[in-house]
Amino acid sequence: xxxxxxxxxxxxxxxxxxxxxxxxxxxxxxxxxxxxxxxxxxxxxxxxxxxxxxxxxxxxxxxxxxxxxxxxxxxxxxxxxxxxxxxxxxxxxxxxxxxxxxxxxxxxxxxxxxxxxxxxxxxxxxxxxxxxxxxxxxxxxxxxxxxxxxxxxxxxxxxxxxxxxxxxxxxxxxxxxxxxxxxxxxxxxxxxxxxxxxxx
Length: 200
Description:
By secondary structure, the protein is of the alpha+beta class. The chain is built from 2 helices and 13 strands. Residues 1-20 have low confidence and may be disordered.
């Protein structure tokens, strides 16, 4: 019985690990700071570098389903890279930004629908610039009617360093369990069945 429980525990750990595993997209060359020429990121974790004179990096993402998107940006330990991030929609409209979530890192959460979005990142302080050359500091919400953003830009000195963007999308609560949750429930029921047979 102890062996069966150990096997069940291992199976549950493996199932949980598989549902949280992330592949990583690595910045190709120097990502553009213009939304129209953003690099298409194909994974939920993105690694890149802000170099001296680098105005910022923009990534294009395509989400198959909607939900609550969370983006965590962390700078490489040992550098002074102070991450500053923002989220834009398919029409290049600024949605939300964040400068600090504690220390030099930044984080934002936003409810999205399925579709195309853009993430901009740079070293503090970052601005989104629209077609009329108006600027929005990438923190909090943009002013109403700010319009489509052309590019992002750092307007002061830059502290270079590597960064990691980690994304997650939590489905909106609709009473339907996720496949991973159903799988874990099934493994648990299977384990109870094995334990019950051993006792009989």
